[in-house]
Amino acid sequence: MKALLIIDVQNDFLPPNGTLAVPHGDEIVHPILELIHDEKQDWHRVVMTRDWHPKNHISFAKRHNQEPYSKITYKSPKPGDKTTQEGVLWPVHCIQNTRGSQLADPLLKETYKNHYKIVDKGFLSDREYYSAFHDIWNFHKTELHEYLQKHHITEVYIVGLALDYCVKETAISAAKLGYKTTILKDYTKPVNSDDESMMKLKEEFNSYNIKLD
Ligand SMILES: [Zn+2]
Q: What range(s) does the Isochorismatase-like domain occupy (predicted)?
């Protein structure tokens, strides 16, 4: 059974007004809408994910009195765990229940007509999330895996924003969890689109057996 996972197509990630706009991100909204309704695809389930942050989320530069896009070393949120991870601080984005965190209007309207599953991530303030399956530490799991299992999904097709962050990490999680994983490249946009970044990305996808179609 096949599921379409639409990652973080939310106003704050879309030009021209999003606070963390992905270049050309707005150009994939209508194609995604068509993909949802493409009868040849026969999606068993369609899932839309949202980055869904409290006001003081740890990934916001403001919280650390830093400039957006500066680096940070995150400490594990687990007491006694000395593990760290390198990260990037972002402008404030996708605050829960604001215009910025809303799905792009055409997708939002779609959710009024049909019952698509919405999965939120990023709502614990003390940790960063990229994958729609879990936080960057793989401690807190979202409901995504359980939902897909419940509906006997074995294959996932991933689209949305951004290719080199949340789409990538969601695809890696899915592949590790045993799903046959494909990223549909015409329905996603990267933050960094230079040749070197794209080549690295493709190598990474290959190493996890993720198809870029
Ligand atoms: Zn975020």
A: 3-196
- Which residues lie below 8 Å from residue 10, measured CB to CB, with a gap of 6+? 18, 50, 51, 94, 100, 101, 102, 103, 104, 161
Nearest to 52 by CA among 124, 156, 127, 148: 124
Q: Tell me phi and psi for residue 5, to 5 degrees.
A: -105, 115
Superfamily of domain 2-51+92-212 in CATH is: Isochorismatase-like (3.40.50.850)
184 phi/psi in degrees, rounded to 5:
-90, 105
The reported pLDDT for the residue numbered 113 is 87
Residues in the chain predicted with pLDDT less than 50, given as ranges, are: none
Q: Can you give the pLDDT at residue 181?
A: 98
Look at residue 114 in the predicted model and tell me its pLDDT: 84
Under a CB-based contact definition with an 8 Å cutoff, are residues 58 and 126 in contact?
yes
94 is catalytic: no
